[in-house]
Amino acid sequence: MKKFRWTMILSIIMLLISCGNGGEKPAAGGEAPAGGEAKKEIKIGVALYKFDDTFISSVKDAINEISDEKSKETGEKITINAVDGQGQQATQNDQVDTFITQGYDVIAVNMVDRTAASVIIQKAQAAGIPVVFFNREPVAEDMAKWDQLYYVGAKAEESGTIQGEVAADYFKANPDADKNKDGKIQYVILEGEPGHQDALLRTEYSIKALEAAGFQVDKLASDTALWQRANGQEKMAAWISAFGDKIELVLANNDDMALGAIEALKAAGYLSDGKFIPVIGVDATAPAKDSLKAGLLYGTVLNDARGQGKGIFDIAYALAKKENPAEKVQGITDGKYLWIPYQKVTKENVDKF
Ligand code: BGC
Ligand code: CA
C-alpha cells in the first residue's frame, strides 16, 4: 500500500515536470535552451538623423537607459545599436540596409528627410522587419503603406500653443514690455529646419496663441537657424544690429537656437540691468533649464525625451517579441501613433523637470 502511494506521487511529479517542458517555447534558431534559460537576443537598430543634436542625443540616451532597465528586469540580452546619419539621407538608407541584412528584429528611424520614408518602408516590408519612426513624422500616405509601421512623437501644434501662452503671460504681467507703446508685440523668430513639422507648426501656433490671448503682433524678422545654437546666435546678432531696442520678444523653435540668441543678446548688453527681453524656446534640455534658473531664458516647453524614448523602446520591444504594441503600450492611437504630451516650463516649475 505504502509503495503504491509513493509510485503515485512520483509519477505525478514526473507528469508535472514533463508538462512544464512541453509548454516551453522553442528557443530561436532552433537552438536548445541551455539549462532551460537561454532567451533569444533582441536586436533593435536605431538610425538617428544625426548625433550632433542636443534633443536627439537625449532621446538616444533615454532609449539606452530604458533598454538596460528592461534587460535587468527580464534577464534578456537586448542590443540597441544607434547609428549616426550625419544629416545625409543616403547614409541613413545604407545604415538601414545594414540593419536589414544583419537580421535586426526592429528598426527605429529618425528620418533625415521625413518625406523620403517610402524607400525605407519598402525595404523593411520586403524583409518583414517592423519600423518605429520618431521625431520626424513621415507623411500619412507613407504611414499607411504597411501595418507594421509606428510613429512616436509629440503634437507640434501643442508646443507652439504653449510657447505663445508663456509669451502672453509675460506681456500681461509686464505692460511695459511693449516698449514703444504701440499696442503690438514686435517679435523675431528663429525657425528650425524648413519642412520639419515642428518648425512649421511651432511658428504658426505660437503666434496664433498670442493673438488668441488678445495681443496684436508685428513680425520684425524670421529665418531658419536649422535647430542650431551657433546659427541662432549669428542670426540674432544681425537682428540686434538691425532692430536693436525695437525687439520686444524672441521666439525660437527649439532651446539650442534660443540659447544662441541669448549669447547674442548678452554680448549686446541685454538681459541685465533692466534690459530684459523674453526669449522662449522648446525642449527643456539641460542647458536650457540652467539658463532658465539663471534668469536668462524666460521659458520653454518640455519636449519629453524620456517619454518618447520609452515609447520607442516599448513599441520596439513588443514588436521584437511578436506582440501587438497596441495591446502592450498605453496610448497608441489609430493603431500606430503614440503622442507624448508637451508641458510648460518656467522659473516657477522648472525644478519639477
Ligand atoms: C526638437 C529639436 C530638434 C529636432 C530634431 C525637435 O523636436 O525640438 O530640438 O533639433 O526635433 O529633429
Ligand atoms: Ca510694441
SS summary, helix count? 12
| Rounded average pLDDT | 92
Helix content: 40-55%
Number of strands: 13
The gyration radius over C-alpha positions equals: 26 Å
Q: What compounds sit in this structure?
A: beta-D-glucopyranose, calcium ion
Principal-axis shape equals elongated
- Residue ranges: pLDDT <50 for 5 or more in a row? 12-36
- N-to-C order of helices and strands: HEHEHEHEHEHEHEHEHEHEHHEEE
CATH superfamily annotation of the largest domain: Response regulator
The biggest beta sheet reads: 7 strands, mixed
Q: Which structural category fits the helices and strands?
A: alpha/beta
CATH level-3 fold name of the largest domain: Rossmann fold
Please state how the strands of the largest beta sheet are arranged side by side: 2-1-3-4-5-12-11
Ends distance: 71 Å
User: Do you know the CATH architecture of the largest domain?
Assistant: 3-Layer(aba) Sandwich
Q: Classify the beta-strand content into a percent band.
A: 15-25%
Subcellular location: Cell envelope
GO molecular function: carbohydrate binding; metal ion binding
GO cellular component, one term: outer membrane-bounded periplasmic space
Main location: other
Description:
Pfam families: Peripla_BP_4 (PF13407). The chain folds into 2 domains: 42-154 and 304-341, Rossmann fold (3-Layer(aba) Sandwich); 157-302, Response regulator (Rossmann fold). Helices cover 45% and strands 18% of the residues. The chain has helices spanning 2-22, 54-74, 89-101, 117-127, 140-143, 156-173, 197-212, 229-243, 255-267, 286-293, 305-320, 325-328, and strands at 42-48, 78-84, 106-109, 131-134, 149-153, 184-191, 216-224, 249-252, 279-280, 299-302, 332-333, 337-339, 343-346. It has a 7-stranded mixed sheet, sandwiched between helices. A 4-stranded parallel sheet has the order 7-6-8-9, sandwiched between helices. α6 (156-173) packs parallel to α7 (197-212). The longest helix has 21 residues, at 2-22. The protein is elongated and about 90 Å long. 43% of the residues are buried.
